[in-house]
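ugh ok fine here u go
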Amino acid sequence: MKAVVQRVKNTRLSVDGKLISEIPFGLTVFLGVKVGDTEKQAAYLAKKIAGLRIFEDENGKMNLSVKDVGGDVLLVSQFTLYGDASHGNRPSFTLAERPERAEPLYEYAVKELSAYGITVKKGVFGADMQIEQHNDGPVTILLDTEL
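structure:
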């Protein structure tokens, strides 16, 4: 699994012009599921995201987690994180897990992250989503269960 974690001031996610999810501040996380991933990888990433200290403390040091600052998480499934463009210009997505296996793992990641006492909002799995966000910093962290 891969996750792109972005610290945000706010994020709004819409589908077909209808607002689906919104967070006032916290983390927007794009989650990609790879062929063969299991609940073990989802639990690992949930723990890392919950504990990631990328918010500033009173001394201006990145020392606080999203839970510490009372932020929310918007978790968005994104199979394109496993796009491979190493051969040619059109990405191949053969490493991305099929939707019928990826969706339950995405939902499991939501459940695991919520278990840390964090409010987790979701995108719509498989939908064409429009996302407006105000990045903070910007701070963007890449997490990968294979590292």
